[in-house]
Amino acid sequence: MAQVTLQYFDGCPNWRIAEERLVRLADEYGFPLHRQRIDTPEQAERVGFGGSPTILVDGRDPFAADGPAPTGLTCRVYPTPEGPQGAPTEDQLRAALR
């Protein structure tokens, strides 16, 4: 069973979309969903927070770009088949969980 963590900060509304999708998949796949709120720029730097929302599967960001990613309290944008969105699609999340 995968360990899935949703990292977010309260100032970005996109994490709620990711959370809704992950909750549906948690029911489907049977994994516990952990949430980690990032409160400060220092904490973001310490944990390597790539923006809100960041989804970690077994401690790894399956949506990370190659090379070092910037960290900080920013909203993250994901490329999806429908264009840029504030969270991965359910299909993209399913692929990341495989």
Keywords:
32% helix
Describe this structure in words.
- This protein has a single domain, classed as 3-Layer(aba) Sandwich (Glutaredoxin).
- 32% of the residues lie in helices and 14% in strands.
- The longest helix has 16 residues.
- Helix 1 links the parallel strand 1 and strand 2.
- It has a 3-stranded mixed β-sheet with strand order 2-1-3, with helices on one face.
- It has 98 residues and is α+β, with helices and mostly antiparallel strands.
Biggest β-sheet description: 3 strands, mixed
CATH third-level topology: Glutaredoxin
Number of strands: 3
Give me the strand/helix succession: EHEHEH
Q: Which strand order spans the largest sheet, edge to edge or round the barrel? A: 2-1-3
Intertermini distance: 10 Å
Q: Count every helix, treating DSSP H or I runs of 4 or more residues as helices.
A: 3
> What share of the residues lie within helices?
25-40%
Helix/strand-derived category reads alpha+beta
Could you tell me the mean pLDDT?
A: 92
List low-confidence stretches.
none
Question: What is the total domain count?
Answer: 1
The CATH class is Alpha Beta
Q: What share of residues are in beta strands? A: 5-15%
Shape: globular
* Gyration radius, rounded: 12 Å
Could you write a compact summary of the structure shown?
The protein starts with a strand and ends with a helix. The chain is built from 3 helices and 3 strands.
